[in-house]
Inverse folding.
């Protein structure tokens, strides 16, 4: 049983956090049987936290958790902060496979195509 | 003659700004004849600024400038800060049409599909 955790930065503006939660909900609909569940989590400023969301997946029976960074650039958050929050959970639950997928900005070609659509 | 300005937040980490400039370069290749040029600009912390980039497009002969926000959420930057930097340039050059395209995060379905690809 595989769960997906969409990780965003988190904002003081609750509407932005809600946008992320709605996107996670949309991913859940699109994922079909690939993921038993998809949830949103936040690096800071909003709940649930990354470790909290991972713990919740495990308690609900996940054998595999994929952490997906919803970030455009490969900065400190993607390179350091997210791995630092994931690693203790992996150490605590060695029977569960926890992986970090590439961040959104890494999908350069797809993003370039989307941007051109938006620009008309 | 239509120019596209890809606007990112800007980072103290120069590699992140370079990622945006490379993306603008990629857009220029993909745009074909739709845009005479595509350049990157930054809301803060990096150069060129938004007004500086727009001015440069106009000096190079643009009759139309499309400003494309490279942002995931509809926060203060997208709602207020970018329009506030664009409006004085429009007032200064009424003969040029300057429009702001939807921000990247508004392309929900496309982003959801990209995220699922990244998650495998």
């Amino acid at each position: 049983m595989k769960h997906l955790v969409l990780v965003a930065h988190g904002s003081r503006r609750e509407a932005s956090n809600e946008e992320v939660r709605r996107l996670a909900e949309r991913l859940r609909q699109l994922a079909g049987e690939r993921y038993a569940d998809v949830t949103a989590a936040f690096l800071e400023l909003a709940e649930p936290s990354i470790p909290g969301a991972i713990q919740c997946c495990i308690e609900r029976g996940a054998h595999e958790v994929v952490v997906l960074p919803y970030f455009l650039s490969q900065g400190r958050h993607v390179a350091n902060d997210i791995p630092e929050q994931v690693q203790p959970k992996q150490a605590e639950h060695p029977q569960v496979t926890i992986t970090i997928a590439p961040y959104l900005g890494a999908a350069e070609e797809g993003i370039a195509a989307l941007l051109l659509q938006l620009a008309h």
